[in-house]
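subagent[fold] <- orchestrator: predict structure for attached chain, return tokens only, no commentary.
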Amino acid sequence: MMGNRMSLPQHEGNPLGDYLRDRRMKLDPAALGLPAGRRRTAGLRREEVAQRANISPTWYTWLEQGRGGAPSAHVLDRIARALILTDAEREHLFLLGLGRPPEVRYRANDVTPRLQHVLDALDPVPAVIRTALWDVVAWNRAATVMLVDYEALPPADRNILRFAFLHPHMRSTQHDWEALARFIIGSFRADVARVGATVAAEPLVEEMCETSPEFRTMWRDKNIQGPHGDVIKRIRHPLIGPLAFEYSTFSVDGRTDLNLVVYNPATAEDAAAIKSLVDRKRGRSVKTRVKAGV
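subagent[fold] -> orchestrator:
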């Protein structure tokens, strides 16, 4: 009787418990190295989830039953790992349990083929994906033609801070380099704080302070650049001349430590000039591969 009574909270009034139970029952015990045995229901037992999460079986049972109050973020994070939740599922768990999303986690750089396809689909609009430390980890062809030829740079040099302060090319192409540099530092500082990557950023900041007096001075200003609306970025391209871009950043779904940065031409004339140059570069690339027998 008691077991039946305890199953009653599995209804609309206990969304956290319903979600935990649903995720638990979708896991395959055998795939996790657990004995199949005779199980009354599919999935893991409550005590198995508790053991994987290193929490009390009683406490986990109370969570599914809607008892014991709100769990801590630490407990929810353990349960998310125990249930092998995706980033989206983990965020949903936090929204149910705490009424807010989890703190953003900074992770190692990895870009899926899906993200690369998004970049390629934007061609001939330049676009890149950058990390919270402002390493450019993916780009499309238009970005290499109009902004920086990232493919020609060693991976360590594909960092926007290093390029902005240490490469003469950046200064020669910018309409107002100092304003851009201050904007970069303020935005970088905000991104690092947002994803909790302060410790991970320390080596880069120390390197930049040692190699660039201008960076060191601007960094000490402790300026923070918050979320910005419409920003126009102006450059002087060596082949086309002055260009204006509408600069926009977007968080990557499920990866808020990554940002998609899009440089949309501000005028139809700029868009036509960019497309023409990108098409010419693409044609030359194809001819080179044909001659090489690729």
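orchestrator: received. Logging for downstream: Confidence is low (pLDDT under 50) at residues 1-11, 286-294. The radius of gyration is 25 Å.
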